[in-house]
Amino acid sequence: VPLALFGGSGNYASALYIAAVKTNALEKVESEILDLVEASKKADTYFQFTKDLSVPAETRVNAINEICTQAKFSDVTKHFLVVLAENGRLRNLDTIAKRFVELTMAHKGEVKVTVTSVIPLPPEEEKELKETLQETLGQGKKVKVEQKVDPSILGGLVVEFGQKVFDMSIKSRARQMERFLREPIHFGTL
Protein backbone atom coordinates (compact mmCIF):
# COMPACT_ATOMS: atom_id res chain seq x y z
CA VAL A 1 0.00 0.00 0.00
CA PRO A 2 1.60 3.30 -1.07
CA LEU A 3 0.11 5.29 1.84
CA ALA A 4 -0.71 4.38 5.42
CA LEU A 5 -4.40 5.14 5.95
CA PHE A 6 -6.02 4.92 9.35
CA GLY A 7 -9.53 4.40 10.66
CA GLY A 8 -12.31 2.21 9.32
CA SER A 9 -12.52 3.92 5.93
CA GLY A 10 -8.74 3.71 5.54
CA ASN A 11 -8.75 -0.01 6.34
CA TYR A 12 -11.50 -0.75 3.83
CA ALA A 13 -9.84 1.42 1.16
CA SER A 14 -6.50 -0.33 1.75
CA ALA A 15 -8.11 -3.77 1.49
CA LEU A 16 -9.80 -2.79 -1.79
CA TYR A 17 -6.51 -1.40 -3.11
CA ILE A 18 -4.65 -4.64 -2.32
CA ALA A 19 -7.35 -6.78 -3.97
CA ALA A 20 -7.42 -4.54 -7.06
CA VAL A 21 -3.63 -4.56 -7.45
CA LYS A 22 -3.44 -8.35 -7.01
CA THR A 23 -5.93 -8.84 -9.83
CA ASN A 24 -4.37 -6.11 -11.98
CA ALA A 25 -7.70 -4.23 -12.03
CA LEU A 26 -6.85 -1.01 -10.19
CA GLU A 27 -8.16 1.42 -12.82
CA LYS A 28 -11.31 -0.62 -13.48
CA VAL A 29 -12.15 -0.91 -9.78
CA GLU A 30 -11.51 2.80 -9.24
CA SER A 31 -13.82 3.67 -12.13
CA GLU A 32 -16.55 1.32 -10.87
CA ILE A 33 -16.43 2.62 -7.31
CA LEU A 34 -16.54 6.25 -8.46
CA ASP A 35 -19.42 5.46 -10.84
CA LEU A 36 -21.37 3.88 -7.98
CA VAL A 37 -20.76 6.89 -5.73
CA GLU A 38 -22.05 9.19 -8.50
CA ALA A 39 -25.08 6.97 -9.10
CA SER A 40 -25.87 6.94 -5.37
CA LYS A 41 -26.08 10.74 -5.43
CA LYS A 42 -28.58 10.64 -8.30
CA ALA A 43 -30.73 7.76 -7.01
CA ASP A 44 -30.66 8.77 -3.37
CA THR A 45 -33.86 6.98 -2.33
CA TYR A 46 -32.70 3.58 -3.54
CA PHE A 47 -29.25 3.88 -2.05
CA GLN A 48 -30.66 5.09 1.29
CA PHE A 49 -32.44 1.74 1.45
CA THR A 50 -29.16 -0.14 0.97
CA LYS A 51 -27.50 1.92 3.72
CA ASP A 52 -30.28 1.60 6.28
CA LEU A 53 -29.07 -0.64 9.10
CA SER A 54 -32.65 -1.56 10.05
CA VAL A 55 -32.85 -3.36 6.69
CA PRO A 56 -31.59 -6.95 7.09
CA ALA A 57 -28.05 -7.51 5.83
CA GLU A 58 -29.31 -10.20 3.44
CA THR A 59 -31.61 -7.67 1.75
CA ARG A 60 -28.76 -5.13 1.43
CA VAL A 61 -26.49 -7.82 -0.04
CA ASN A 62 -29.17 -8.86 -2.55
CA ALA A 63 -29.63 -5.24 -3.61
CA ILE A 64 -25.87 -4.76 -4.07
CA ASN A 65 -25.60 -8.02 -6.03
CA GLU A 66 -28.38 -6.78 -8.34
CA ILE A 67 -26.64 -3.41 -8.82
CA CYS A 68 -23.31 -5.10 -9.57
CA THR A 69 -24.89 -7.49 -12.05
CA GLN A 70 -26.73 -4.72 -13.91
CA ALA A 71 -23.63 -2.50 -13.94
CA LYS A 72 -21.40 -5.44 -14.97
CA PHE A 73 -18.92 -4.67 -12.19
CA SER A 74 -15.77 -6.73 -11.77
CA ASP A 75 -15.62 -9.49 -9.17
CA VAL A 76 -13.28 -7.41 -6.98
CA THR A 77 -15.74 -4.51 -6.83
CA LYS A 78 -18.72 -6.83 -6.35
CA HIS A 79 -17.09 -8.77 -3.49
CA PHE A 80 -15.97 -5.56 -1.84
CA LEU A 81 -19.45 -4.03 -1.98
CA VAL A 82 -20.97 -7.24 -0.63
CA VAL A 83 -18.60 -7.07 2.35
CA LEU A 84 -19.66 -3.47 2.95
CA ALA A 85 -23.33 -4.48 2.73
CA GLU A 86 -22.84 -7.40 5.14
CA ASN A 87 -20.99 -5.22 7.63
CA GLY A 88 -23.41 -2.29 7.40
CA ARG A 89 -20.72 -0.04 5.91
CA LEU A 90 -22.37 1.00 2.64
CA ARG A 91 -23.19 4.31 4.27
CA ASN A 92 -19.42 4.98 4.36
CA LEU A 93 -18.87 4.27 0.65
CA ASP A 94 -18.27 7.92 -0.27
CA THR A 95 -15.52 8.30 2.35
CA ILE A 96 -13.99 4.93 1.48
CA ALA A 97 -13.98 5.88 -2.21
CA LYS A 98 -12.14 9.14 -1.45
CA ARG A 99 -9.52 7.26 0.57
CA PHE A 100 -9.21 4.66 -2.21
CA VAL A 101 -8.57 7.44 -4.75
CA GLU A 102 -5.79 8.74 -2.47
CA LEU A 103 -4.17 5.31 -2.75
CA THR A 104 -4.58 5.05 -6.51
CA MET A 105 -3.13 8.53 -6.98
CA ALA A 106 -0.14 7.66 -4.81
CA HIS A 107 0.26 4.43 -6.81
CA LYS A 108 0.42 6.48 -10.03
CA GLY A 109 2.75 9.08 -8.50
CA GLU A 110 0.05 11.75 -8.66
CA VAL A 111 -0.29 14.52 -6.11
CA LYS A 112 -3.61 16.33 -5.77
CA VAL A 113 -3.18 20.04 -5.21
CA THR A 114 -6.21 22.11 -4.26
CA VAL A 115 -5.92 25.78 -5.22
CA THR A 116 -8.47 28.18 -3.79
CA SER A 117 -8.86 31.61 -5.37
CA VAL A 118 -11.50 34.34 -5.58
CA ILE A 119 -12.12 33.66 -9.27
CA PRO A 120 -11.12 30.69 -11.45
CA LEU A 121 -7.47 30.89 -12.47
CA PRO A 122 -6.93 31.70 -16.13
CA PRO A 123 -5.37 28.74 -18.02
CA GLU A 124 -1.96 30.46 -18.31
CA GLU A 125 -1.77 31.14 -14.54
CA GLU A 126 -2.90 27.59 -13.75
CA LYS A 127 -0.18 26.26 -16.08
CA GLU A 128 2.51 28.40 -14.38
CA LEU A 129 1.33 27.32 -10.92
CA LYS A 130 1.31 23.67 -12.00
CA GLU A 131 4.89 24.00 -13.33
CA THR A 132 6.06 25.64 -10.09
CA LEU A 133 4.41 22.93 -8.01
CA GLN A 134 5.93 20.26 -10.26
CA GLU A 135 9.39 21.71 -9.58
CA THR A 136 8.67 21.82 -5.84
CA LEU A 137 7.46 18.21 -5.70
CA GLY A 138 10.27 16.92 -7.92
CA GLN A 139 10.56 14.29 -10.60
CA GLY A 140 8.41 11.19 -10.51
CA LYS A 141 5.35 13.08 -9.29
CA LYS A 142 2.48 14.27 -11.44
CA VAL A 143 0.55 17.30 -10.21
CA LYS A 144 -3.24 17.25 -10.52
CA VAL A 145 -4.70 20.68 -9.80
CA GLU A 146 -8.23 21.02 -8.45
CA GLN A 147 -9.51 24.57 -8.43
CA LYS A 148 -11.91 25.92 -5.83
CA VAL A 149 -13.51 29.34 -5.90
CA ASP A 150 -14.09 31.07 -2.56
CA PRO A 151 -14.78 34.83 -2.63
CA SER A 152 -14.41 34.98 1.17
CA ILE A 153 -10.59 34.79 0.89
CA LEU A 154 -10.75 38.30 -0.70
CA GLY A 155 -7.74 37.68 -2.98
CA GLY A 156 -4.51 35.75 -3.25
CA LEU A 157 -4.34 31.95 -3.15
CA VAL A 158 -4.60 29.06 -0.74
CA VAL A 159 -2.62 26.03 -1.94
CA GLU A 160 -3.11 22.65 -0.23
CA PHE A 161 -1.35 19.35 -0.90
CA GLY A 162 -0.65 16.46 1.39
CA GLN A 163 -0.54 17.83 4.92
CA LYS A 164 0.73 21.23 3.77
CA VAL A 165 -1.27 24.44 3.39
CA PHE A 166 0.20 27.62 1.98
CA ASP A 167 -2.27 30.38 2.81
CA MET A 168 -1.39 33.46 0.80
CA SER A 169 -4.89 34.92 0.92
CA ILE A 170 -5.66 38.53 1.69
CA LYS A 171 -8.10 37.33 4.37
CA SER A 172 -5.30 35.49 6.17
CA ARG A 173 -2.92 38.44 5.91
CA ALA A 174 -5.61 40.79 7.23
CA ARG A 175 -6.14 38.52 10.25
CA GLN A 176 -2.40 38.44 10.93
CA MET A 177 -2.24 42.24 10.73
CA GLU A 178 -5.27 42.55 13.02
CA ARG A 179 -3.63 40.29 15.65
CA PHE A 180 -0.42 42.26 15.38
CA LEU A 181 -2.24 45.57 15.90
CA ARG A 182 -4.15 44.26 18.94
CA GLU A 183 -1.04 43.07 20.77
CA PRO A 184 0.15 45.50 23.45
CA ILE A 185 3.35 47.33 22.68
CA HIS A 186 6.08 46.76 25.26
CA PHE A 187 8.82 49.29 25.47
CA GLY A 188 12.05 48.04 26.91
CA THR A 189 13.87 50.01 29.58
CA LEU A 190 16.49 52.39 28.30
Automatic annotation (TrEMBL):
One of its GO terms (biological process) is proton motive force-driven mitochondrial ATP synthesis. Pfam families: OSCP. It comes from the Eukaryota. GO terms for cellular component: membrane; mitochondrion. Keywords: ATP synthesis, Hydrogen ion transport, Ion transport, Membrane, Transport. SUPFAM superfamilies: N-terminal domain of the delta subunit of the F1F0-ATP synthase. Gene3D superfamilies: N-terminal domain of the delta subunit of the F1F0-ATP synthase. It is found in: Membrane. The keyword S-adenosyl-L-methionine does not apply. InterPro entries: ATP_synth_OSCP/delta_N_sf, ATPase_OSCP/d_CS, ATPase_OSCP/dsu. Belongs to the ATPase delta chain family. This is ATP synthase subunit O, mitochondrial. It comes from Citrus sinensis.
